[in-house]
Write a structure and sequence with these properties.
The chain has 859 residues and is α+β, with helices and mostly antiparallel strands. The chain is built from 31 helices and 17 strands.
């Protein structure tokens, strides 16, 4: 387990035992030479401290760390005195890592160095054995080394991890002058060599970030090693010791995250509670622990905890960006580099220049008299791709006044320039947000800042999702007649979230307020508000309702008031929003559905007759009347998508058997339609082969004949193929406390499946039978459409049409149903039966590897 053997917090070497010497390297503790001493009392005190979890007796996280430090300091000091490790003894006990920083967590290793002044090896061995063996015998995890000061400095000079650990060294007991020699020597050596070691330090951090990911947007973040984690703050501390940066990134106390130190302390408290709850040195926060940790820290539920983590991690990430950039610019120059002329200041905009690769204020800029300077700085940064200087942001935060309302046209123009730069806008907006400047421009932003999504399909926090949507929308500005409204609508479309009401309704009111502040014309304010109010209209209608039903198009046109511009903007916004949601949310199937809905709406707006459902072709009618089985596969404009037409007798389970045959041949169904004629069902499927070309239509027909005749069980074959598949579909084996295996389902969903009922305006068809719409949201699996169709058709419902949407590993399948009766009991039984055939939610598993992740976001 990496957290048991890690030596990254120590002096650079991880040693669990062996004879004490200057070159200890044994892989584990040797046989005991002594009986347990007072170390057992230390262990007992630790256990008693961690058992205090009831109400007032429970020690909070900061106090727990301090008590842990005091306990270990006391034991080490006492034991050292017993062994003769006293002032002027030639020995010193030095702590590094968590104990060195006085941030010892409940299950962290002890990272210790026994320093000696070139003493007799026999005496050194006796002292070291007397110190290490009681700790080993008490089963306290220990990283240790025995060194002289020159030896320790030599290790620090060659090992980056050792150097970083020794920069945090703290004297515990013994000869303090030895410790002082070590600490001053390591720091002097670090400052002298930083020019040569800076690249290695940055590369090491980059490797760590690639392994552990970004904490702010990670489902189950590594609080210690991830980007924006505790290690990053310690790296900034090392750069501050090298006198290259102050490590604080010029963040004001009133900035989001309240500054770097507060962000660091929050993550440290969360990591402390994670250790306490897990009962071991876990660094990855898992979903099943989030609610308990949030309650212990009085933060709230797992969503509140996720928001705090995101806020803290983004503050630290911003500080690291600034710190590394500042340190790189401050590196001491040598040789010919010392003779180079100072960098030239290059004008970028009014009052804005480029200097040393950063966007800074011009010498004659006066922030207190120039409210629009913030947006000019941000737009210049986005246009050039250059970062904004931390000192510039700090100066703007201190002196820039609020923009008057309505904004001057120049300010709105600069905002539109910023929003039109695509992904280049992300970094400057993040910089403005971390320093409190973005909130001055958009006070409504505070409600969604670091707000975690409630749906697992979303990749980003709500505020970052808005920025990503605007970045996507900026690539679509040539498609619409009002690109300014498109990017503004993308930026504010979800601002109503986190306010306890329908975010589209609340957001529309906020959009009116924001539009007036921006100085838009009244008609444009109304359009912006309508964009936010109806930003879900097109995707929801296209994926949930029958497009061949004339009422579907009329409802959309009526909702939009026949406004062609609004329809055009909503179509582009739907795509930008979907692309910013997560992988697989936007694809050919969704684009085609929304495109068809938009075309139908435009025809109605232009006064054309609303198209009726497309009739069957003469060939399809003839084949349906013949009563046989027919299968055809046709290519589409997309090279990877194919249209499959199947005609068979209209019997119970026809759709299920057709979908099952497709799944059996590796054809993923993305949409389906069904019509009946002369006792036959004519179904069309838009499919994508799992790989290669689709199978021959004759093979599909032969299998459909066998399925219709009942000679093969398609679902049974799909189940058998799932069991034989080499692709793992189940988590690692689960065992009970006695080691016996626990039976678990073969498939798991990352989020619980849901069945929604969407009643249509017309409750009954022409035959008097009730109609409704069933929407299934669940994890995908092979043959899911076939399984669900079979269940529906055997539980008192007939499928009139279906729309299949696959978003990554999640499906949203919508079925237009004709019921034999419309009763709560029938709906309940049908919903339960559908849920029974989809992958169930994944149960909590305590046996996962520490580095694994269930994928269930804590927020």
């Amino acid at each position: 387990m990496p957290f048991v053997t890690s030596g990254n917090d120590s002096s650079g070497e991880s040693r669990r035992g062996g004879p004490a010497s200057d070159d200890t390297s044994s892989a584990g503790p040797p046989p005991s030479r002594t009986t347990p001493t007072a170390a057992t009392d230390l262990v007992a005190a630790r256990k008693q401290l961690l058992r205090r979890t009831d109400g007032a007796k429970r020690t909070d996280a900061p106090a727990l760390r301090q008590v842990m430090v005091d306990l270990h300091d006391f034991w080490l000091t006492t034991k050292g005195a017993e062994l003769g490790v006293r002032p002027d003894s030639g020995f010193a006990i030095v702590a590094v890592g968590g104990l060195g920083r006085q941030e010892l967590l409940p299950h962290s290793d002890l990272d210790l160095i026994l320093l000696h002044d070139d003493m007799d090896p026999a005496v050194v061995s006796e002292v070291a054995d007397g110190l290490w063996y009681p700790l080993w015998d008490a089963h306290i995890k220990l990283d240790h080394s025995v060194r002289t000061v020159p030896q320790a400095l030599q290790v620090a000079a060659s090992d980056m991890s050792a150097a970083l650990g020794l920069l945090e060294a703290r004297h515990i007991a013994g000869d303090e002058s030895l410790t002082e020699l070590l600490i001053t020597g390591v720091r002097r050596q670090w400052r002298a060599d930083i020019r040569n070691r800076f690249v290695e330090l940055v590369d090491q951090a980059g490797d760590r970030w690639r392994r552990s990911g970004d904490i702010a947007h990670r489902a189950e973040p590594d609080l210690k090693n991830g980007r924006g984690g505790l290690r990053d703050v310690q790296m900034l501390g090392a750069l501050a010791i090298a006198q290259l940066t102050d490590g604080m990134a010029n963040l004001r106390p009133d900035s989001p995250g309240a500054g770097l130190q507060v962000a660091y302390t929050r993550l440290l408290d969360i990591r402390t509670e994670l250790h306490r709850i897990a009962g071991r040195p876990r660094e990855q926060l898992r979903a099943q622990d989030a609610d308990e940790i949030g309650a212990a820290l009085r933060i709230g539920d797992r969503f509140d905890l996720a928001r705090v983590i995101s806020d803290s991690a983004r503050t630290i990430s911003y500080s690291v960006d600034v710190g590394l950039r500042t340190a790189g610019n401050a590196l001491p120059r040598r040789g010919l580099a010392m003779l180079r002329r100072p960098p030239v200041r290059r004008p970028l905009d009014e009052g804005v220049v480029e200097h040393s690769g950063e966007v800074v204020l011009a010498r004659n800029a006066i922030p207190s008299k120039d409210p629009g300077l913030i947006l000019r700085v941000a737009s210049a940064s986005a246009r050039t791709g250059l970062p904004i200087s931390a000192s510039t942001l700090s100066r703007l935060a201190d002196y820039a006044p609020e923009l008057r309302e309505p904004w001057p046209s120049e300010a709105l123009s600069d905002l539109l320039v910023l929003l039109g730069t695509g992904r280049h806008m992300v970094a400057p907006i993040e910089a403005l947000d971390r320093t409190g400047l973005w909130g001055r421009l958009l006070p409504e932003w505070g409600a969604v800042r670091d707000l975690p999504p409630r749906d697992a399909i979303h990749t980003w926090t709500v505020d970052r999702h808005l920025v990503e949507t605007a970045a996507n929308a900026s690539r679509m500005t040539t498609r619409v007649s009002r690109p300014d409204l498109l990017v503004l609508g993308a930026l504010v479309h979800d601002l109503g979230k986190g306010r306890g009401a329908d975010h589209s309704v609340v957001g529309a009111e906020l959009a009116t307020q924001i539009g007036n502040r921006f100085g838009l014309w009244p008609d444009d304010v109304a359009t912006l508000s309508a964009m936010v109010r109806h930003h879900l209209l097109l995707p929801a209608t296209a994926t949930r309702r029958d497009l061949d039903d004339p009422a579907t198009t009329r409802d959309v046109v009526d909702a939009l008031g026949g406004d062609r511009l609004l329809l055009e903007l909503l179509a582009a916004l739907a795509e930008a929003d979907s692309l910013a949601t997560g992988p697989g949310v936007w694809g050919d199937w969704k684009a085609s559905l929304i495109g068809e809905l938009v075309r139908r709406c435009l025809r109605v707006m232009d006064g054309e007759e609303l198209p009726t459902p497309e009739p069957l072709t003469d060939d399809q009618r003839a084949r349906a009347e013949a009563g046989g089985v027919f299968v055809d596969i046709a290519a589409t404009e997309n090279a990877h998508t194919h249209l499959v037409t199947m005609i068979a007798p209209d019997t119970d389970g026809a759709l299920s058997k057709m979908a099952g045959v497709l799944a059996l041949n590796g054809l993923r169904c993305h949409s389906a339609t069904a019509q009946s004629h002369a006792g036959s069902v004519v179904d069309t499927f838009m499919v994508i082969p799992a790989f290669g070309d689709p199978p021959d239509a004759g093979l599909l027909r032969q299998q459909l004949l066998q399925a219709t005749a009942g000679t093969i069980d398609v679902l049974a074959r799909i189940d058998a193929r799932e069991r034989e598949s080499p692709i793992p579909t189940a988590p690692p084996p689960v065992t009970d406390p006695d080691g016996a295996p626990v039976a678990v389902p073969a498939l798991f969903a990352l989020a619980p499946p849901r069945v929604l009922w969407i009643d249509r305006e017309s409750a009954a068809g022409t035959d008097g039978s009730p109609r409704t719409v069933l929407e299934l949201r669940a994890a995908d699996r092979s043959g899911l459409l076939s399984r669900v169709s079979a269940v529906i058709e055997t539980h008192g419902a007939a499928i009139e049409w279906a729309t299949v949407a696959t978003m990554g590993g999640t499906v949203i399948d919508t079925f237009g149903l004709r019921l034999t009766e419309d009763s709560a009991d029938l709906r309940s039984r049908l919903a339960d039966a559908v849920i029974a055939v989809v992958p169930p939610p994944e149960p909590p598993r305590e046996t996962d590897d520490e580095q694994g992740t269930s994928g269930v976001p804590i927020g």
